[in-house]
Design a protein that fits this description.
alpha+beta; 2 domains; Porin; 1 helix; eight-stranded antiparallel barrel
Length: 139
């Protein structure tokens, strides 16, 4: 085997590895697209608390604004309306939101493009838990 032949083989291998690396890198960039959560989300919410016991009710959430991973919105429930602020975690699946007039927080997952889970947890004297699977009904 000559030196020239050896260099050509190495260059072909290098080129093949470079192309594979480029293809893999572009797939990762595509996977990092931040999901758009703007819209109206609805579903059945199952809650449990010392004060109110077990309840099931229709939950409607409106996400009205989103800038990169940050979003805001509101929802109405038996005690009124709450405005909230949320974040999409870097895994592009986990979401968390909080309201200024609430002692708990909501954590959820993006299950599909138009389906999320939303689970509320509050400790203390008014301890409450609840979870809903919400489907986007309007964008």
């Amino acid at each position: 085997m000559t030196l020239k032949y050896w260099n050509i083989c190495n260059m072909k291998k290098f080129l093949a590895i470079t192309i594979l690396f480029f293809l893999a890198a572009t797939q990762n960039i595509k996977a990092e697209t931040i999901p758009n959560l703007i819209g109206t989300w609805s579903g059945e919410n199952n809650t449990f608390s010392e004060l109110k016991g077990m309840k099931t009710w229709e939950k409607n959430v409106q996400i009205t604004e989103q800038n990169d991973r940050r979003f805001k919105g509101h929802f109405t429930y038996s005690d009124g309306t709450k405005n909230f602020y949320g974040i999409i975690h870097p895994d592009n699946i986990t979401i968390t939101w909080v309201a200024s007039n609430s002692r708990g927080y909501n954590i959820g997952k993006i299950l599909e493009k138009n389906k999320i889970s939303a689970c509320y947890v509050e400790s203390g004297i008014d301890a409450t838990v609840g979870c809903a699977v919400l489907s986007r009904t309007k964008k």
